Amino acid sequence: MKKTLLVLFIPSICGNAWSQSLTVEQRLAQLEKKLQENAVELSQTKAALKQYQESESENKSNKPVTTVVNKQITNNTAAEKTAPTLKEISNVVKEDIGFTYSGYLRSGWGAASHGSPQPYAVGSVGRFGNEYSSWFDLQFKQRVYDQNGKTAHAVVLFDGNVGEQYGDAWFDKDAESRLQFSDIYLTTKGFLPFAPEADFWVGKHNLPKYEIQMLDWKSHLTESGAGVGIENWQLGVGQINAALVRQDLNAHAVNYPAASEALQVNTNTLDVRYNNIPLWDNATLALLARYSLANKSDTYKNREDNGSYYSIKDAWLAGVVVRQALSAGGFEEFTVQAADNSLASGFAQPFGPSPTYGYGDNYYGEHSYGKAFRLISQGEAYPFSHVVMAHALIYSAGNDIYSYDTGAHTDYHSFRAVVRPAWIWDSYNQTGVELGWFTQTNKQQGVNYHEQGYKTTLYHALKVDTSLLASRPEIRFYTTYLRAQDNGISHFQFGD
Predict the structure, then answer these.
(1) Which carries the bigger pLDDT value, residue 407 or residue 20?
(2) Mean per-residue pLDDT of the chain
(3) Could you give the C-alpha distances from 244 to 19, 193, 226, 229, in angstroms and in order?
(4) Where are the domains of the chain?
(5) The whole model's pTM is what?
(6) Confidence category of residue 74, pLDDT binned at 50, 70, 90
(7) Domain at 208-487: CATH architecture
(8) Of 8, 93, 126, 441, which has the fewest beta carbons less than 10 angstroms from its beta carbon?
């Protein structure tokens, strides 16, 4: 199935790039012809060398050598090499074509003690044994230009979810299955005279996301439609990543969700990062900042002024990340962040606190310039030769923010802790546990709302390396105990 997919995509992409280029079969034929010619030349060279050695042997036995032979054997390096392997030929073809693909997927089977299994607070108590979706993404990248130190690549990324619950999983907005083209852009290198080493891109794309991997949410990201950006621009001791991207939102009337009336509002975000600033041995610093604002139409301004629609406020986020690579393997990463308005509202979400300007594609709520901050520690280490441990610890608090759960003028504080120690049997087998616990309290108009839960997961993993966070693929076997101790914020209830 993968081969069929590859064959179908290569002609459609390459055909647009070079109307006069050869097919893959023609290129392979040319390579085989060259190999045959090299083999003939090698055979001739060996014969000439043998004849020369025999002649020298006769000269030495019959008379002293009075002249120096200055004959060089051509292809002396190639003569010692064996014929190229199929893998080497494949790599040559891939490089010549300029096409690559990469991706990610997860899927599996699960059952619960009472009915269908349900996840709870994945972004707070951890992912292992607590996810029941078949997520995937697949990227196709085609080189379309490579001359004079300048390159250009066309990139398409699509991702989505495939339903696991029913036998039929057709793509439909009311079902589990989803599909979107999350990236479609052109990225270049060598076209900017002031930054020839930088990647300059235009299209639907965004800067890389900072992920809290054990909790499956992003500490820093920019949601985007179309945009323009530059990455890996060496400036001083570090590298600049910057992007200006668009993300329109459906801004709602003040009686939302009782009424669904909304207007599309254009918003734009500037995301700037200064990465890889050296600190000490194997340690780097990153400075992060984003600013989001609305480009409002006169119609929307009028509805803001008369109080029928929510006022869309600008929002900012700033952060510092220190990353330390560990000598025994693994890393430690510390993050400090602060934000206001709707980005601060993202910090306060109990299950998936990614900082987003809207709530999905929607904007609503009475944002009153409230602020929030958080401290994040994540990483993995090898305390002993047969033990590896990963962790994620997050403390967050905010004042006078809009909560999507408890409303305007909410104060909150929360703590999340997930640890995952494992015993390393060998490079292919690990047995471990994932322990997660969280608590959050929202205070609104003098009333406290509390959410708390924990999870214990015992697992065994079939692996290809020892790392918990960087080794893929994996096959895992879980057993999990999951409990929601208090649901005063989310009002979540298990099906049983």
Answers:
(1) 407
(2) 87
(3) 34, 20, 9, 6
(4) 2-86, 208-487
(5) 0.80
(6) very low
(7) Beta Barrel (2.40)
(8) 8
